[in-house]
């Protein structure tokens, strides 16, 4: 019987460069965002697993004996290889239509898949009640799917005893060991596979480790030195699905390999150039470093349009910020969602305010953000702000 209550969280992310190209083995640079997804786990009446996902309107619960029977129906331990077949069975079990791709369907499937696959490997997940609440907009390019998957992986692995619960009496926050983080990351990747189809793994890596990192084909390298970057984040509020956009890029590459592959190579070179510039910058950089970073944003934004993940709302975002002398690009999967605008250390508060006003007049939402937040973290309730406490105390 699970007796403790615990709260944990994982950050969203911003991809500076390399979105989509990273799915095809190129380099991406990504940083953790100061917006997080929170998960509360607490004991539940004997024999049930309950899950509440207010962000996507899901309230479900299942008898643990039914979940165990379902798990036993899946032969062997080849969960990773058999994901497509298992998902069909899980859809039937949860009453989700075959082709469903609505947020609530994907979130429920990711939960069931991770819960059963983790139980199959490490022992039953006990009777628990799980509530997930997020500060991140869903489906906007800020890695809400990965933050969700990282939180689920950490909570389920802790509940079934595969990893420790490192929060000690008197501590306000705690993190897991490197080895445990590696396990959390690998299971979060499986959750991302359910939601994205073919994820690169960069988002779950940032959600797990936090900070700023370079990611290529599963290799995660923390950036040596990252200056204080000021970034304006703008949400166009145009909905889109990462799964659909990633599939569209693949189709384009297959259709026009000789045209698209050089574009991906160029995006790779942009990420590498940006990494060199960032690592050469002092902690509080002077404005002279910025023209190169700005130009890299502009070039990459054009490339992302070429590979088919732009959107008129994102073009508008870039035009509006350009009229204030600022440079922007989409971030994440594109097709709507969010864009990032680089602010120089000497960009005046008045100029930022004027740009924000024009962006809001387009119906967009924007805010200045700090980057490099910590990765997946366990919390004592004393470390949570009033809004999070309120959201987690609901129902
Ligand atoms: N707070 C949340 N609770 C439950 N599911 C979530 C939550 N946030 C994201 N998701 C899942 O992630 C999906 C969005 O992922 P995606 O299209 O990759 O966009 P992004 O990761 O950029 O936000 C949603 O459809 C939903 O299934
Ligand atoms: C487009 C991609 O590079 C990032 C997707 O990020 P998001 O789901 O839009 O936050 C896909 C991936 O790396 O798995
Ligand atoms: Mg995502």
Automatic annotation (TrEMBL):
Per the annotation, which location comes first and is thus the protein's main one?
cytoplasm
- Give its localization: Cytoplasm; Peroxisome
EC number of this enzyme = 2.7.1.36
Give me the reactions it catalyses: (R)-mevalonate + ATP = (R)-5-phosphomevalonate + ADP + H(+)
Which GO MF terms are attached to this record?
Answer: ATP binding; metal ion binding; mevalonate kinase activity
Question: Which InterPro entries does UniProt cross-reference here?
Answer: GHMP_kinase_C_dom, GHMP_kinase_C_sf, GHMP_kinase_N_dom, GHMP_knse_ATP-bd_CS, Mev_gal_kin, Ribosomal_Su5_D2-typ_SF, Ribsml_uS5_D2-typ_fold_subgr
Q: Spell out the family assignment given in the record's similarity comment.
A: Belongs to the GHMP kinase family. Mevalonate kinase subfamily.
Q: Which organism is it from?
A: Nipponia nippon
Q: Describe the task this protein carries out.
A: Catalyzes the phosphorylation of mevalonate to mevalonate 5-phosphate, a key step in isoprenoid and cholesterol biosynthesis.
Name a single GO biological process: isopentenyl diphosphate biosynthetic process, mevalonate pathway
Annotated pathway: Isoprenoid biosynthesis; isopentenyl diphosphate biosynthesis via mevalonate pathway; isopentenyl diphosphate from (R)-mevalonate: step 1/3
Residue span(s) of domain GHMP kinase C-terminal: 297-355
What Pfam family is a match, any one?
GHMP_kinases_N
Q: Which Gene3D superfamilies match?
A: 3.30.230.10, GHMP kinase, C-terminal domain (3.30.70.890)
Query: Which protein, by its recorded name, is this?
Result: Mevalonate kinase
Spell out the GO cellular component terms annotated for this protein, sorted alphabetically and separated by semicolons: cytosol; peroxisome
Q: Which residues form the GHMP kinase N-terminal domain?
A: 115-207
Keyword annotations from UniProtKB, A to Z: ATP-binding, Cholesterol biosynthesis, Cholesterol metabolism, Cytoplasm, Kinase, Lipid biosynthesis, Lipid metabolism, Magnesium, Metal-binding, Nucleotide-binding, Peroxisome, Steroid biosynthesis, Steroid metabolism, Sterol biosynthesis, Sterol metabolism, Transferase
Tell me the subunit arrangement: Homodimer.
Cofactor requirement = Mg(2+)
**Superkingdom of the source species:** Eukaryota
């Amino acid at each position: 019987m699970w007796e403790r209550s615990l709260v944990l969280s994982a950050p969203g992310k911003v991809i500076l460069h390399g979105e989509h190209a990273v799915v095809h083995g190129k380099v991406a640079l990504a940083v953790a965002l100061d917006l997080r997804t929170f998960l509360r786990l607490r004991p539940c009446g004997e024999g049930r697993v309950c899950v509440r996902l207010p962000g996507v309107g899901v309230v479900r619960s299942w008898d643990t004996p039914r979940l165990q029977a379902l798990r036993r129906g899946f032969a062997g331990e080849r969960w990773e290889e058999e994901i497509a077949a298992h998902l069909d069975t899980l859809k039937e079990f949860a009453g989700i239509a075959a082709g469903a791709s609505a947020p609530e369907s994907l979130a429920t499937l990711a939960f069931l898949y991770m819960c059963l696959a983790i139980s199959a490997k490490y022992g039953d997940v006990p009777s628990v009640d799980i509530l997930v609440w997020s500060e991140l907009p869903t489906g906007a390019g800020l890695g809400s799917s990965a933050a969700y998957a990282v939180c689920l992986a950490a909570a389920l692995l802790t509940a079934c005893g595969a990893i420790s619960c490192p929060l000690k009496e008197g501590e306000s926050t705690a993190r897991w060991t490197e080895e445990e983080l590696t396990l959390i990351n690998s299971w979060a990747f499986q959750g991302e596979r359910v939601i994205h189809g073919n994820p690169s793994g960069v988002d779950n890596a940032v959600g797990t480790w936090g900070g700023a990192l370079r990611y290529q084909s599963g290799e995660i390298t923390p950036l040596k030195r990252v200056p204080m970057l000021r970034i304006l984040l703008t949400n166009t509020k145009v909905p889109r699905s990462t799964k659909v956009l990633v599939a569209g890029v693949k189709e384009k590459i297959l259709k026009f390999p000789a045209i698209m592959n050089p574009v991906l190579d160029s995006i790779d070179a942009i990420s590498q150039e940006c990494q060199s510039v960032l690592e050469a910058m002092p902690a509080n950089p002077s404005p002279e470093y910025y023209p190169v970073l700005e130009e890299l944003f502009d070039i990459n934004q054009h490339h992302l349009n070429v590979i088919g993940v732009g959107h008129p709302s994102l073009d508008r975002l870039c035009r509006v910020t350009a009229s204030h002398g600022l440079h922007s690009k989409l971030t994440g999967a594109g097709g709507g969602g969010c864009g990032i605008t680089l602010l120089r250390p000497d960009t005046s508060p008045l100029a930022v305010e004027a740009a924000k006003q024009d962006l809001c007049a387009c119906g967009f939402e924007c805010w200045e953000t700090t980057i490099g937040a910590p990765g997946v973290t366990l919390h004592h309730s004393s470390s949570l702000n009033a809004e999070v406490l309120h959201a987690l105390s609901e129902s």
